[in-house]
Write a structure and sequence with these properties.
CATH superfamily of the largest domain: ATP-grasp fold, B domain
Structural class: alpha+beta
Shape: globular
Radius of gyration: 21 Å
Largest sheet: 8 strands, antiparallel
Strand content: 25-35%
Helix content: 25-40%
Strand order of the largest sheet: 13-12-9-10-11-14-21-19
Number of helices: 15
């Protein structure tokens, strides 16, 4: 096991890793920017190192300063959390060159799954279902048009190096294809410095289903069930739950085996997530693999009783998985609600500023993962996520009731948050019945139902 882990992140995930380290008996060191000097992870870590000013490009994303902090404190491992450097293959490679363990997969696995076009080809070779689409990248607008006509509209154009919905365009008809092709390429180039795009058949009203996997460095891989992440806005998840209301044991086994096959195809190690689209007809297709811990990992933790961050660290340290697939049990139903410092009435505009009062919910089956407290300041420079409310109950109906109760108790003053919007969303008939899909929120808002 490691002696000292440097945490190259901030906010709730940095605090989550600090807590995991404490329970493992490992010293934690948090790097931070100047505005995060008084943050909760900085206060609770064993040690903290300031690595720069507010801008992430001058602090959290500055590899030289992260490595300098690791050298100063004598860290033998770096945990990147999610975002920032978490899926940066060059950073993972540099860690190896500096004889520091990167708590994540190999640089080769990150590259293999980070490029969506090559990941798609790898999955086809591994026998994992993929959405019908172009063979390789689109070379020009004529190639795009020919591919779309052969496939049939609607289609979706995706950035090969993409993520978060950037460089992605749905094309409903032939007349808008060329415009959308160039728009997707330009956005991909501006967002990822890579304008490569490919095309897939557009799946109407799909669900977003992801499978959590754990893998050690000795070839052992297990999945820990699915998370239904269909409640999202502009490809950003807002509410996640497990198990999915539409997946039975037979489909769960098939999708879980496909997730394990996907991980094995790139010789994956530590924690990761294989994401699928599930059609209304019950077909599932590989979408992408996130080569890191996910924001929504707590729902899996509460139904399995497995600490994913600790297991991620153990696997990175070279330990064998203590679990086999038949050992994993799923208990009850869990829901996670992301709380963002945003104003839904103003198009979900970010709302940074000081939190004058913060009162979290409690009671049976309620967990809060958050780094905020009364008197702290939410800076305007980073992601707007300020916390997650996770509830666990024997049944889905009980979990929904518990989630609404917890949101009623959550009280934050000084800034706007998405708390009331989330409560309203959970109260809709479609959510109660599980009749949701990836564009449900946008459609409901356009119809005036939210």
């Amino acid at each position: 096991m490691f002696q000292r882990i440097l945490i190259a992140n901030r906010g709730e995930i940095a605090l989550r890793i600090v807590r995991a380290c404490r329970e493992l008996g490992v010293e934690s060191v948090v790097v931070h920017s100047e505005p995060d000097r008084d943050s909760l992870p900085v206060q609770l870590a064993d040690r903290a190192v300031c690595i720069g000013p507010a801008a992430a490009t001058e602090s959290y994303l500055l590899v030289d300063r992260v490595f300098a902090a690791a050298e100063i404190c004598g860290a033998d491992a770096i945990h990147p959390g999610y975002g920032f450097l978490a899926e940066n293959a060059d950073f993972a490679e540099a860690c190896e060159a500096c004889n520091i363990c990167f708590i994540g997969p190999s640089a080769e696995a990150i590259r293999g799954m980070g490029n969506k076009a090559s990941a798609r080809a790898t999955m086809i070779e591994a026998g994992v279902p993929v959405v019908p689409g172009s063979e390789g990248l689109l070379t020009d607008e004529d190639h795009a048009m020919a591919t779309a006509k052969a496939m049939g509209f609607p289609v979706i154009i995706k950035a090969s190096a993409g993520g978060g919905g950037r460089g992605m365009r749905v094309v409903e008809e032939e007349g808008t294809l060329v415009q959308n092709y160039h728009a997707a390429r330009n956005e991909a180039l501006n967002s990822f410095a890579n304008g490569d795009v490919y095309m897939e058949r557009f799946i109407q009203r799909p669900r977003h289903i992801e499978f959590q996997i754990l893998a050690d460095k000795h070839g052992n891989i297990v999945h820990l069930g699915e998370r239904d992440c269909s409640l999202q806005r502009r490809h950003q998840k807002l509410i996640e739950e497990t198990p999915s209301i539409v997946i039975d044991d037979v489909l769960r086994k098939r999708m879980g085996e496909a997730a394990v096959a996907a991980a094995r195809a790139v010789d994956y190690a530590t924690a990761g997530t294989v994401e699928f689209l599930l059609s209304a007809e019950g077909e599932f297709f590989f979408m992408e693999m996130n080569t890191r811990i996910q924001v929504e990992h707590p729902v899996t933790e509460v139904v399995t009783g497995i600490d994913l961050v600790q297991e991620q660290i153990r696997c990175a340290a070279g330990e064998h998985l203590a679990l086999e697939q038949e050992d994993i049990r799923f208990d009850g139903h869990a829901i996670e609600i992301r709380i963002n410092a945003e104003c839904p009435e103003r198009g979900f505009a970010p709302c940074p500023g000081p939190i004058t009062l913060c009162c979290f919910p409690g009671g049976p089956g309620v967990r809060i993962d958050s780094h905020v407290y009364s008197g702290c300041v939410i800076p305007p420079y980073y992601d707007s996520l300020i916390g997650k409310v996770i509830v666990h109950a024997p049944t889905r109906d009980e979990a929904l009731a518990r989630a609404r109760r917890a949101l009623d108790e959550l009280h934050i003053e000084g800034i706007e948050t998405t708390t009331e919007f989330a409560a309203k969303l959970l109260g809709t008939e479609a959510v109660r019945k599980g009749q949701t899909y990836t564009k449900f929120i946008e459609d409901a808002m356009a119809a005036g139902d939210l």
